[in-house]
UniProtKB/TrEMBL annotation:
It holds the Pfam family FecR. One of its GO terms (molecular function) is sigma factor antagonist activity. It comes from the Bacteria. The chain crosses the membrane at residues 86-106. This is FecR family protein. It comes from Chitinophaga polysaccharea. Keywords: Membrane, Transmembrane, Transmembrane helix. Residues 257-324 form the Protein FecR C-terminal domain. Residues 119-213 form the FecR protein domain. The keyword Oxidoreductase does not apply.
Length: 331
């Protein structure tokens, strides 16, 4: 895309005039290269400066331009060719057109809410997003982050489905809030991980640095300290507060899988997300098999071979689907 086209796309996007397809293209473009994010921020800065120009100022600029044109029309013109005269009027019309276009593009349009953006990852895919306040978000596979193009003056609110790791920039007078379907997390500046997979039995928040306030639906609020993890059961709303294992919590960023006496049926979701496959259990006994293993950036076939050869399971892969069964002769 040429520089002019990109500039117009970004300004239309900031004015809330782009389509869903254009928004998706722009999000992919920004996350593909850190320099793209810097280009976007620079265009946004210029756009915000133009927003401060009032309709009255634009009107005054147009009046001055019209007055100059009228004065030139009334003043006895020196002898000049028709070509020069035509050139002047064409240039004046062009300038007026540019002023009007700038006024249209950079005049804030009435809106009832902030422009919302959304980043969605596919199975096996991770994305890093840098928000406008310089907060860094690593979005896990098959996850979703929703956030405004520009934060409100008194808060910075985003929502998450799935897995996300946050490094929040300091802004004491502008709290950062992460919302999930079961809870909200309020911070001022910290590093923490959120697991809010709609298919998972619980939502968890793990704090690595700083302090966060976790508010459940209702009135209960918990203040976490570094090294703590809170879990909220989706069915019972039961709360569990435990010390965190940083390798288990952040392992997904380096393709690390850790299973500690965990049922295969529960562990399967993490394998599916990391490798972009679907695991089908042919019977309940296979799904109930307990796993105790750790894998670091291993290929899928190595993971499945290790799981199955060390126990009573067998598997076969057909396309993106893995079928798991008990070995013959086992119950």
């Amino acid at each position: 895309m040429r520089e002019q086209e990109l500039y117009l796309l970004v300004t239309r996007y900031l004015s809330g005039q782009t389509s869903d397809a254009e928004n998706a293209w722009l999000m992919d473009w920004m996350t593909a290269d850190k320099r793209h994010q810097q280009d976007f921020d620079e265009i946004k800065r210029v756009w915000q400066e133009h927003q401060r120009t009032t309709d009255e100022q634009v009107g005054q600029a147009l009046s001055v331009l019209r007055a100059r044109i009228a004065a030139d029309e009334e003043r006895p013109a020196p002898v000049k060719s028709k070509r020069v005269q035509l050139y002047w009027f064409a240039a004046a019309a062009g300038i007026m057109g540019m002023v009007l276009t700038t006024w249209y593009l950079f005049t804030p349009k009435p809106t009832n809410q902030l422009l919302s953006l959304k980043v969605i990852t596919r199975p096996g895919e991770k994305k890093t997003i840098v928000l406008e306040d310089s907060t860094r978000v690593v979005l896990g596979p098959e996850s979703e982050l929703s956030y405004p193009a520009a934060f409100a003056k008194d808060n910075r609110t985003v929502s998450v489905k799935g897995q996300a790791y946050f490094e929040v920039s300091q802004a004491p007078h502008q709290p950062f809030v992460v919302k999930t379907s079961l809870l909200s997390v309020q911070v001022l500046g910290t590093h923490f991980n959120v697991q809010a997979d709609p298919k998972a039995p619980a939502n968890t928040v793990a704090l690595l640095e700083g302090a966060v306030k976790v508010k459940l639906k209702g009135t209960k609020t918990y203040l976490l300290k570094p090294g703590q993890e809170i879990s909220v059961d989706r069915q019972t709303n039961q709360i569990a507060l435990n010390p965190l294992d940083s390798t288990s919590v952040l392992g997904w960023q380096q393709n690390v899988l850790i299973f500690k006496n965990e049922e295969f049926g529960s562990a399967a979701a993490r394998i599916e997300k990391m490798y972009g496959v679907k695991i089908v259990f042919n019977n309940g006994a296979a799904a109930a098999t307990h796993l105790y293993a750790q894998f670091k950036n291993e290929p899928l076939d190595a993971v499945m071979e290790t799981i199955c050869t060390s126990g009573v399971l067998t598997y076969r892969q057909q396309g993106d689907t893995i079928y798991v069964n008990m070995k013959k002769g086992t119950k």
